[in-house]
Amino acid sequence: MRKRSPRDWHPEDIKAAVRKTRYGSLAALSLAYGLPEHACRHACRSANFHGEMAIAEALDRSPREIWPSRYDSRRPRFIRSPAQPTAPAVERSL
């Protein structure tokens, strides 16, 4: 696990802010956004794009404001895309 930057919100601060919203918990927030139950909880401690977006939207903040170290403008942030299916191998007869 990567060490948290002092500029980032503390995970307990994020949880407390989410508790004040209509969702009440990180698990309920994840489920409301159609994510796995643990997605927002993981986003508090390590990078999880969809969890981060759900938290930021629920708190009416920018993800860059909550996790400035993850959204450093000098370093591009890549989102892993699903693996592309490969074409089946074709056998050639000689």
Characterization of the model:
The structure is a single chain. The chain is an all-alpha fold. It has a domain of 56 residues: 434 Repressor (Amino-terminal Domain), CATH 1.10.260. It has 5 helices and no strands. Helix 3 crosses helix 4. The longest helix is centred in the middle third of the chain and has 10 residues. The model has no long low-confidence stretch (mean pLDDT 81).
Q: Say what the CATH topology of the domain at 11-66 is.
A: 434 Repressor (Amino-terminal Domain)
Helical residues, percent: 25-40%
In one word, what is the shape?
globular
Output the CATH class name of the domain at 11-66.
Mainly Alpha
Helices and strands: which structural class? Answer: mainly alpha
**Mind telling me the C-alpha Rg?**
18 Å
Please tell me the overall pLDDT. Answer: 81
Q: What is the β-strand count? A: 0
Biggest sheet character: none
Architecture blueprint of SSEs:
Elements: H1 11-19, H2 26-32, H3 39-45, H4 49-58, H5 63-66
Helix pairs in contact: 3-4
